[in-house]
Amino acid sequence: MGADKVIDYTKEDFTKSGETYDIIFDAVSKSSFLRCKGLLTQNGVYFSALPGLTILFQMLWISKIGSKKAKFSATGLLPVQERLKFLKEVNELIEAGKIKTVIDRRYLLEQIVEAHRYVEK
Fold it and tell me: pLDDT in tens for each of the 121 residues of the chain?
């Protein structure tokens, strides 16, 4: 999807690399905006898929006083037609081979509790 570098947070702490980034996309809420703010380039953007009240407050505050931004996407709140449009785009990327799914583990339905525990850790 155009990323120059993708970091596996389970293997590398990017906050200690000394690098700066145009975009930090925290898909699993492992690094707060405040922790990442200093790693963003002048016009860098921090995206969060799972924002809490803290980041919402930080987004408002920082947008008033700084050039670095924090954003999130509440796609679940969009109208059905908009969500279908996003799904179609993702499907096209998958069919074009630009996105590949990785199935780490499989669970039976009866093992749903264990599956959730695994995802949470």
Answer: 567 778 887 888 888 888 888 888 877 777 777 788 888 888 788 777 666 677 677 767 766 666 666 666 666 666 778 778 877 888 888 889 887 777 888 999 999 999 988 887 8
Tell me if residue 23 falls in helix, strand or coil.
strand
Q: If one looks up domain 1-73 in CATH, what number appears?
A: 3.40.50.720
DSSP for 40-89, please give it: EEEEEEEEESS--HHHHHHHHHHHHH-S-EEEE--GGGS-HHHHHHHHHH
Q: Cα 77 to the chain's mean position, in Å?
A: 17
| 3-class DSSP assignment, residue 116 | helix
Give the domain ranges of the chain.
1-73, 76-121
Our measurement of the distance from residue 45's CA atom to the centroid of its chain's CA atoms, rounded to an integer in Å, reads 11
β-sheet bridge partners, residue 40: 21
β-bridge pairing 21-26 and 40-48:
parallel
At 50, list the tokens: 């799972």
